[in-house]
Write a structure and sequence with these properties.
- The complex is a heterodimer of chains A (230) and B (298).
- Chain A is of the alpha/beta class and 230 residues long.
- Chain A has three helices and eleven strands.
- Chain A is elongated, with a radius of gyration of 18 Å.
- Chain B folds into two domains: 2-44 and 124-297, Aminohydrolase, N-terminal nucleophile (Ntn) domain (Glutamine Phosphoribosylpyrophosphate, subunit 1, domain 1, 4-Layer Sandwich), CATH 3.60.20; 46-117, Alpha-Beta Plaits.
- The A-B interface holds A 37-39, 57, 59-60, 76, 78-79, 95, 97-98, 116-117, 135-137 and B 250-253, 255, 257, 270-275, 285-287, 290.
């Protein structure tokens, strides 16, 4: 286990040490970051199959652009956690602030508490599992990937949605433009079962508890007959 | 971008440390707002006395013999404590308005930062650490306080454009964001008798809340009204004699984190502003919901 004291050694040294692992054969596969104290940009741009545990809460953009790594935050995460993640896994034990998993291309983001507004905004292939609730404008313009919410969703869920799958167990305060409830088919139940398992939530819910929401496909394919409603 | 910090103490044992705790929080927020900083600090004050915090660009001229001149003008004792470009004038509570009018005559260049029984406001252009040091904020005692680090967007970087803004007795407001309908709201408030020192959007928000309170609204109602009448991005923290309140606009893109323990309620634009507070590891930490008013009063 490599222990890195962020307060003593500084952010640049941490991220440089993590970036140096790229493409290397290394035994340094388990990392621990202590004294994060809400700092910004912790473990951003990692591209190696290592396991990083952050002991405390983080500020803006923790685990952004992650590739391959498993990053655990033993606290809450500030805005933009796992933004534009490519692959790997990010697990937040506490809550996540706004735009968690924004524009994510791949990998898995698990938030064990609640996520604030704009969770999964413009997601493009990432899987997101939230054990609690998500805030307003979540999955705005979400393009692909899956989000599984064990709690409730705020206003305007999935506004201007493309082809992401949204699964919510609790209530949805309101659906955004062009987002509708859709039929749950066996292939969707299989996606949910897989997300519950990978999202460490199998003991909390079962696939049949959820409803599926998706795009009505009336907005993103421009149709001249609908011009007045755009 | 701007930074906001706030502390409302429940445990009187922390009162001697309020200034020190707020200073640490304020300096942590420097990179959210390095162009100016300010702090409003509330203390019990002396019974029957009121305080005016004043500011001058030429303190060596304006503050010279001001206590004696003011005493002559109002015929009552005046206590003056000068701190750099600011000074606190303590007068009998029923003489505050008289002192304020006399000041305008005696030293027309002086600006009044705050008036009230408990409030003092200090604000200047410069790095938060320099502003806090200049006014010795770390030594100040109090029951609650609000600090702001400014990155200006809507109006010039000047002392009067720094936050907090105070537009009513013992009231103040700080703001992260920008308002888009402040000109029309300012016009309406002017017609209703409110006065303004600057072209700043936040001063309009402060005056809006003060006006509501003047009309008889409770603090919660006045803050609720900002959600319907003010257009733009905002996280506001409002201070009054007895408490403080928080409200975010419905879009809520301006960050806000709160923490509560048995000893205090704290506000920070970011969690890192609060990491050195006692017991923060076990505090209840949450993000205030959009379009929801929170307030604490003693």
């Amino acid at each position: 286990m490599q222990t890195f004291d962020l307060e003593a050694q500084g952010l640049r040294a941490l991220n440089q040490a993590l970036h140096n692992l790229k493409g290397q054969q290394t035994n340094e596969t388990a990392w621990e970051v202590v004294n994060p104290k809400g700092s910004h940009a912790i473990a951003v741009g990692v591209d190696a199959p290592v396991d990083i545990t952050v002991r405390g809460s983080t500020g803006y953009y923790c685990a952004g652009m992650n590739k391959q790594a498993t990053i655990r935050v033993k606290g809450s995460a500030g805005p933009g956690v796992a933004e534009n993640m490519m692959s790997g896994t990010v697990i937040i034990d506490g809550d996540a602030s706004q735009y968690a998993g924004a524009t994510g291309r791949g990998g898995l983001l698990v938030i064990k508490g609640n996520a604030a507004s704009r969770c999964g905004i413009s997601m493009k292939g990432i899987d997101i599992v939230v054990h609690g609730n998500i805030g307003h404008m979540s999955c705005f313009m979400a393009q692909s990937g899956n989000i599984l919410v064990l709690g409730d969703a705020g206003d305007s869920l999935g506004d201007s949605l493309y082809e992401a799958h949204l699964f919510v167990r609790g209530t949805v305060k309101s659906l955004g433009t062009d987002c509708i409830e859709k039929e749950m088919r066996p292939e969707h139940l299989a996606i949910i079962a897989d997300l519950l398992k990978r999202g460490e939530a199998e003991h909390l819910a079962k696939p049949s508890d959820f409803k599926r929401y998706g795009s009505a496909r009336k907005l993103y394919t421009f149709n001249i007959d609908n011009a007045s409603s755009y | 971008m701007c930074g906001i910090v706030g502390l409302f103490l429940k445990d009187p044992k922390l009162e001697p440390k309020l200034g020190a705790m707020l200073t640490d929080m304020l300096i942590t927020m420097t990179d959210r707002g390095p162009d100016s900083a300010g702090i409003a600090i509330y203390s019990e004050g002396k019974v029957g006395h009121g305080k005016l915090t004043i500011q001058s660009a030429t303190p060596e001229v304006d503050f010279k013999n001001l206590d004696a001149d003011l005493k002559d003008a109002i015929g009552k004792p005046v206590l003056m404590l000068v701190k750099s470009t600011h000074a606190v004038l303590e007068v009998p509570a029923d003489q505050i308005e008289a002192a304020r009018s006399a000041l305008a005559q005696l030293r027309p260049a002086i600006k009044v930062m705050s008036v009230g029984e408990g409030i003092e406001i200090y604000k200047e252009v410069g790095l938060p650490k320099d502003v806090a040091a200049r006014f010795e904020v770390a030594k100040m005692h109090g029951t609650h306080g609000i600090g702001h680090t400014r990155m200006a967007t809507e109006s010039a970087v000047t002392t009067m454009g720094a936050h907090p803004f105070s537009t009513g007795s013992d009231q103040c407001l700080v703001h992260n964001g920008s308002l888009s309908n402040h000109n029309s709201v300012r016009r309406e408030l002017k017609q209703a008798g409110m006065t303004f020192e600057t072209e700043n959007d936040t001063e309009v928000a402060a005056a809006f809340v003060s006006h509501k309170l003047k009309e008889g609204s409770a603090l919660g109602e006045a803050m609720e009204a900002t959600l319907t009448d003010l257009d733009g991005f905002f996280t506001f923290v409002v201070g009054t004699r007895n408490g403080f309140g928080v409200v975010r606009d419905p879009i809520a893109c301006k960050p806000a984190v709160m923490a509560e323990t048995d000893q205090y309620v704290a506000f920070g634009s970011e969690y890192r502003a609060m990491v050195n507070l006692p017991g923060i590891e076990t505090a209840r930490v949450w993000e205030p919901e959009p379009a929801t008013v929170y307030f604490w009063e003693r």
